[in-house]
Amino acid sequence: MLNLQQYDSLGAALRDALERWPDEICLIEADRERENCRLTYRQFRDAASPLAKWLQARGFNAGDCVAIIMTNQSKWLISAYAILHGGGVLVPLDYKLSAPEQIELLAHSKANVLVTEHHLWRAIRQSDQFQGLQSLTVLVTEAPAQADLAGAHRWEESKADGTPDFIPRGRQDVACIVYSSGTGGQPKGCMLTHENYLEQCISLTQLFPFWPGVRYLSILPTNHAIDFMVGFIGPFVCGATVIHLRTLRPEFVRGAFSRYRITYVSLVPLVLKNLEKGLRLKFDEIPPGRRRMLDRLVAVNRFLTRRRPKLWLSRLLLQQVHEAFGGELRAIFVGGAFMDPATIQFFYDLGIQVANGYGLTEAGTAITLNDFNPFRADTVGRPLPGMEIKIVDSDAEGVGQVAVRSKTVMAGYLDDPELTSETVVDGWLMTGDLGRIDSTGHLQLLGRVKNMIVTEGGKNVYPEDIENAFEGLNVKELCVFAANFIWRERSMGGEELIIVLRAESGHEIDAGLVQELDRRNQRLPDSKRISGYVVWDEDFPRTASMKIKRPVLAEAIRLRRDRARSVVKL
Amino acid sequence: MNTPEQTLDEILTLAAGHFKVSREELRPDDDFFKKLKIDSLQALELLTRLEQHFSVELPDYEMQGVSDFRTLAERIQARL
Predict the structure, then answer these.
(1) Is residue A371 part of a domain?
(2) How many helices (H) and strands (E) would you count in chain B?
(3) ipTM for the complex?
(4) A-chain residues within 8 Å CB-CB of B39?
(5) A-B contacts at Cβ under 8 angstroms
(6) Pairing between strand A264-267 and A241-245?
(7) Which of A165, A339, A342, A568 gives a 20 to 30 Å CA spacing to A151?
(8) Which of A96, A456, A457 sits opposite B64 (nearest CB)?
């Protein structure tokens, strides 16, 4: 591994990695059972340099912002390296956002270059908000030969001869602007510095090292903070191999584990649960005699690994299970959302380590991670090296808001000093999550103090961001809440959104209105849908500037309404 | 080649069969996540089933932003 303490920027570290392991395979792009490309570190550099030079020839300079909206594929990483080499700032945007949402974030970030895929570019161009993007330089990958690109450039042809200048950046310069949420409302663009990433990488690789020969399976999109770190920066600065799979379909994911003998993979809880479901179904098909044998082996493995994992032993005892994962899997990283401890325990009992952790975009990637010393399914692990955690305003049981201080905490929110000063107080990042630290130093998460939910797919959803979907509804006032924000739950599971409706005076919330509410709700992406409504009979408390005082309203509802009886399901 | 109506009808029949619901319960503009009580990975399962039936390859992104049978049918029809 490179000694990252000696580096000032991601661009410099990646540049040296490409020189250090020229003949190692750094990147494979697979699509189903096909392999689209396989690049050594030298070939990767040779693919990125002409693009970096092309950008520089067009005046691209240090600090310029480049947005990437792509599924996880090789051109994502090649483009990212070209940008970092040239001193640019990456703006990785979620390709699953709608085109208007992407356009809103492109405008907010002030990106002057966009790299995207043809089908995504088509959707952006068809959006009503597209006119605002005219000054953007756009590079489009995989466009059909006859496609009208409306002034965009073909990525594959965006090349210039010569060696691009390497533009040095300092540790405190911004490397990426990552949106933790905020579409439709208040965009939250986390400015993450080169130091944030370098320190996070040092910290993570102490627990889970990479080296030449390690193969990381990337199925999460690279804009996801976890994949960006453990599916790009981490493996690259260690000479390891990243395998991009351009489909999430379980049958091809399973095939990729075996074909590439995967060492590490990152998953969101939804996918891990799907893997568990598949395994349980397979186990149920085993004839009773062999099933009893399997159950005994699992019990033996559980007993022998109760203090710490013994991978060699688990692979021996449960060979067929491990072979199904390629035989060389060392750990599955899972994060981005609440993970059911029973699922993690299920895998651990099979000898498959699920490294569950806790992190926020605002703090880099991960703050805590299960170190398996010993394994604890009921917590999100201990703080990573270099992370300080404290519990603020704790109650008698030691439960309070989790605060974090480390070199991985962001520089702030782009163009929002007010929100930054509310979120980072005296160097401590106020996470908005409720937790407690137990006697062994493990963090247990127990709920949220902030008004938001996280879906099983790892998406942060802020209620205020979806209120505009219900604008114009025939009510006097409306407000969307995370139900757990009103009725505090000591749980991270079962999160849902609800809408509070205040009828026009003299009117009621009738069937027609509920029908309209439901119709609009159905048009929202699955993750943003409300699950029910509450009727409220008082005017909402508001600030002098007429903003709803959400915590005050939430408390009033909590005091006067019972959750089970007042939430009408849609 | 199928007409758009045939494609839509076949999708509804296949979805009903795959997720074991009555064909009569499904309507073209239904939200299939809600109606079939499925998540995004199960929606990809359906896509695989549709690929087999229509003998066409459908990238995952064809499901992106799609939640009703009619739009799904339009996407598939464009590839037939």
Answers:
(1) yes
(2) 4, 0
(3) 0.84
(4) 270, 456
(5) 41
(6) unpaired
(7) A165
(8) A96
pTM for the whole thing?
0.87
Which element (helix H / strand E) includes A392? Answer: strand A388-392
Residues of A in contact with B31 (CB under 8 A): 522
Superfamily of domain B4-77: ACP-like (1.10.1200.10)
Number of helices (H), then strands (E), in chain A: 19, 28
pLDDT tens per residue, chain A (570 residues)?
999 999 999 999 999 999 999 999 999 999 998 999 999 999 999 999 999 999 999 999 999 999 999 998 999 999 999 999 999 999 999 998 889 889 999 999 999 999 999 999 999 999 988 887 778 999 999 999 999 998 899 999 999 999 999 999 999 999 999 998 655 557 889 999 999 999 999 999 999 999 999 999 999 889 988 899 999 999 999 999 999 999 988 889 989 999 999 999 998 888 888 889 889 999 999 999 999 999 999 999 999 999 999 999 999 999 999 999 999 999 999 887 778 889 999 999 999 999 999 999 999 889 999 988 888 888 999 999 999 999 999 988 898 999 999 999 999 999 999 999 999 999 999 998 889 999 999 999 888 887 778 776 667 788 877 887 888 888 888 999 988 888 887 777 668 899 999 988 888 888 989 999 998 888 887 778 899 999 999 889 887 767 788 888 999 999 999 888 899 988
B 13-72 near A (Cβ less than 8 A): 31, 33-34, 39-41, 44-45, 47-48, 59-61, 64-65, 67
Distances (CA, A) of A12 to A48, A412, A433, B74: 14, 23, 35, 47
Sequence-distant (6+) residues with CB within 8 A of B19 are: B36, B37, B38, B42, B46
A483 in the same domain as A396: no
| Cβ–Cβ below 8 Å for B34 and A522 | yes
**Max CA pair span of chain B:** 31
> Which member of B31, B34, B60 has the closest CB to residue A248?
B60
Chain A nearest C-alpha distance from B49 (Å): 12
3-state secondary structure at position A535: strand
Say if residue A433 is in the same domain as residue A468.
no
Domain that holds residue A394: 268-448
| A384 assigned to some structural domain | yes
Which of A526, A528, A529, A531 would best serve as a mutation to test chain B binding (most B beta carbons within 10 A)? A526
Rounded Cα–Cα distance for residues B3 and B10 (Å)? 11
